[in-house]
Amino acid sequence: MNSTRQHGPIKVGLVVGSSRPGRRGPTVAGWVADTAAGHPAARAGEVTVELVDLAEQRLPLLDEPVPARFGDYRHEHTRRWSTVAAACDAFVFVTPEYNSSIPAVLKNAIDYLDAEWRGKPAGVLTYGVRGGGRAAEHLRPILAEVGMAVLPDHVELGLFTDFDWSGADRSDPTAEGRIAPGDGRAEVITAMLTELLAAVRTAGRDAVPAVGR
Ligand SMILES: Cc1cc2nc3c(=O)[nH]c(=O)nc-3n(C[C@H](O)[C@H](O)[C@H](O)COP(=O)(O)O)c2cc1C
Fold first, then answer.
1. How far is the CA of 51 from the centre of ligand 1 (A)?
2. Residue 104: CB within 6 Å of ligand 1?
């Protein structure tokens, strides 16, 4: 596992934390990516933002015999996931609220790895009926447990305040609405990216693997 990236643009992984068919995750993360692309550091080529879609990883429920803290990965799917996460210097976790918490696919993906997270800054964006704040409350200690430096403020998008439902059939449970974040939301994403970049520069880009606990 290579957790050290000292050269080139800072790479921020936008983790799409849901995987069900018809999910809003890629739409929300796409808006974050588009917003981040307008950040001065992105325009200057100092940072790249890449979608890290958990649906594409197709991880089974954790099936590694050795806890991730020991870095002894036995399965190809774990090594593939490790390579994707290790290549990022920081993360923004884009997650819905599912039953007052985060989706199982996101918790599972976090549990698979350890050194790939350790020491890296993380921002959190949640979405849900009322913004998904309870998912953020659960995600924050999980990220701290794997050694991430979590930004103090998270961003929330509400399904009825940051999506446009005009023309949508409200009786259709699969209707998506169109993402239309309210005033100031883009500025908050830009500020989050600025904070992440500052944290990466302060911490350095050499994540410290910790083995055994
Ligand atoms: C299993 C499940 C549980 C949910 N629980 C909540 C919840 O507790 N709070 C909430 O605000 N929204 C809840 N929702 C609504 C989701 O936040 C909303 O459907 C969101 O779009 C789901 O993200 P996704 O489209 O990326 O899967 C739930 C949706 C699902 C599928």
1. 20
2. no
Contact between 111 and 62 (Cβ < 8 Å):
yes
Instruction: Kindly give the distance from the C-alpha atom of residue 23 to the centroid of ligand 1, in angstroms, as a whole number.
Output: 9
User: What tens digit of pLDDT does each residue of 55-94 get?
Assistant: 999 999 999 999 999 999 999 999 999 999 999 999 999 9
Report residue 157: phi and psi, to 5°. -120, 125
Residue whose CA is at the smallest distance from ligand 1 atom 2: 98
Answer whether 97 contacts ligand 1 (Cβ < 6 A).
yes
DSSP-assigned beta bridge partners for residue 169: none
Q: What is the CATH number of the domain that holds 96?
A: 3.40.50.360
Structural domain span for residue 31: 10-203
Q: Strand 90-96 relative to strand 47-53: parallel, antiparallel, unpaired?
A: unpaired
Q: How confident is the model at residue 213 (pLDDT cuts 50, 70, 90)?
A: very low
Count of other CB atoms within 10 angstroms of residue 149: 17
Q: Is residue 148 part of a domain?
A: yes
- 91 in a structural domain: yes
Q: To test the ligand 1 pocket, which listed residue (14, 97, 125) has its Cβ within 8 A of the most ligand atoms? A: 97
Q: Please check whether residue 165 lies inside any domain of the structure.
A: yes
Question: Does 3 contact ligand 1 (Cβ within 6 A)?
Answer: no
Q: How many domains does the chain have?
A: 1
- 151-202 tens-digit pLDDT: 999 999 999 999 999 988 878 888 888 999 999 999 999 999 999 999 999 9
Residues 6+ apart with CB under 8 A from 201: 10
Ligand 1 close to Cβ of residue 129 (< 6 A): yes
